[in-house]
TrEMBL record:
Gene, per the UniProt record: atzC
Protein name (database record): N-isopropylammelide isopropyl amidohydrolase
InterPro entries named among the record's database cross-references: Amidohydro_3, Metal-dep_hydrolase_composite, Metal_Hydrolase, Metallo-hydrolase_Enzymes, TAT_signal
UniProt-listed Enzyme Commission number(s): 3.5.4.42
An annotated Gene Ontology molecular function: N-isopropylammelide isopropylaminohydrolase activity
Keyword Methyltransferase applies: no
């Protein structure tokens, strides 16, 4: 890094720039989305309390064919202290502790949005569904080179609005993809870090330093190396053949930056076979060679997995599962239906995310990870009680579910972090199928969205 490069702590201590709200007021037009106000924390000033009358799943109900036909639940009192679940009981709650009545709402694990671009969103500003300039990734890079200066003007404000939207939909955590490119330099990252830091008491995050314009194509390696010193968690990459033009050199550069800085990897891979298949095989090879990246390497999108020969897919999925290489999919519809059942069969880590809320790429994002679970159920025909309940795994931390496959409750448990949502549903299967309102969203025991 050069002598004048600031680190994360330095620029977070810098005086805040003109607020996004002020900037927003000057761009004209009607707001696409009004500010989402954070609720008054129901636990304000209380590090310990009891959530009473909480509905938890107890097990499955089976028919004579040993098929799951329903989910059994009961009401409990959940003792929360210092951001964790301390105890779960049906006993009369301690009279000395603060009590919050959940009124029979179902408790489900908190949701995570594990692939989202909030550093360059239109969300929080004027509605914009402008036509895409071309159809290739390179066409979109050309468009971004023109509009990024405009997006940077109030990107911190819009990122904060997007964070509030994620909270309202039940997500307490996000993996944020952040542009690192010659046009924005490190400013997108600086603005994003400030937005996240302003929400540090009510939201968790990871950041991917993402070379949207290509590591080689835009000569972004020096910028990525600077970004690696500024509080990011993963080094990204982009289509090493169709954008960067040299698959091995592109992937080697990405891997080396991650290794040099003790970061993980999360690459955008849109390519179809044969180049997409070759890239995945090379990622497997490099991950196998570098043990420190096993369990810390992710392929976002990975459309080649949906388009390769089923026999090739089985072998690749088995290797990915063994090396801890994960897949983060937005669960696309249309011709590219991701092979999630096959990936799950081999233990590949699966996560989902919004990608774009509304930007120059796509206008359809809702930030609803429960909706992504429902989409999985619809795409793969998971229409029964058991499989609907399993669909939730793609949206939760470490794919945790209230009941394991045998119907034994494994969440919540004493010692778990108190990240959860409360919904009006009889069970997780109904929640996935019907998408109930998030009545309460909790982060470390604090209510960060909703009202109960």
């Amino acid at each position: 890094m050069s002598d004048n490069t600031i680190n994360r702590k330095q620029f977070l201590r810098m005086g805040a720039a003109a607020t996004g709200a002020a900037l927003f007021s000057g761009i004209g037009g009607t707001a696409m989305a009004h500010s989402i106000e954070e609720p008054e924390y129901i636990t304000a000033g209380a590090k310990e309390y009891i959530l009473t009358n909480v509905r938890l799943e107890d097990g499955f109900e089976y028919n004579e064919k040993k098929e799951v036909i329903a989910t059994k639940t009961n009401l409990y009192n959940v003792h929360i202290a210092d951001g964790k679940i301390k105890n779960i009981t049906t006993d009369k709650p301690d009279g000395k502790l603060k009590k919050v009545d959940a009124k029979g709402l179902l408790m489900l694990p908190g949701l995570r949005d594990m692939h989202i671009h909030i550093d360059k969103t239109f969300y929080g500003g004027k509605w914009n569904a402008a036509p895409r300039k071309g159809f290739t990734v390179k066409d979109m890079i050309t468009l971004e080179q023109k509009i990024i200066p405009e997006l940077l003007v109030d990107s911190q404000y819009k990122a904060e609005q997007a964070i509030q939207l994620m909270k309202s939909q039940g997500s307490y955590f996000a993996r944020c993809q952040c542009n690192i490119d010659p046009v924005s330099g490190l400013r997108s990252l600086e603005h994003l870090l400030k937005a996240l830091d302003n929400n540090k008491d009510s939201f968790g995050w990871e950041i991917v330093a993402f070379p949207q314009h290509g590591i080689l194509y835009s000569q972004s390696e020096p910028l990525l190396r600077e970004a690696a010193k500024m509080g990011v968690d993963f080094i990204g990459g982009l289509d090493p053949t169709t954008v960067d033009g040299n698959m091995e050199k592109s992937l080697d550069t990405m891997f080396q930056i991650a290794i040099d800085n003790n970061k993980g990897i999360d690459i955008h891979l849109h390519e179809s076979p044969p180049s997409g298949k070759s890239a995945i095989e090379y990622i497997i090879k490099r991950t196998e060679e570098n043990k420190q990246l096993q369990g810390k390497t992710y392929i976002s999108h990975g459309f080649a997995l949906a388009r390769m020969d089923p026999k090739d897919l089985e072998g690749i999925a088995e290797k990915m599962g063994a090396l801890g290489i994960g897949v983060i999919s937005t669960v696309p519809i249309g011709k590219t239906i991701m092979p999630i059942p096959t990936l799950k069969k081999y233990g590949v880590k699966l996560m989902t995310g919004t990608d774009s809320i509304v930007d120059h790429w796509m206008p359809f994002g809702t930030c609803d990870m429960l909706e992504k679970a429902k989409l999985c159920a619809q795409l793969y025909g998971w229409t029964d009680e058991y499989n609907l309940s399993r669909a939730l795994h793609i949206a939760t931390t470490n794919e945790v579910l209230p009941l394991n496959d045998a119907g034994v409750r494994v969440w919540p448990a004493a010692g778990n972090d108190a990240h959860f949502i409360l919904v009006k549903a009889s069970c997780s299967a109904e929640a996935v199928a019907r998408l109930p309102k998030r009545e309460g969203v909790f982060f470390k025991g604090k209510m960060i969205a909703g009202q109960i």
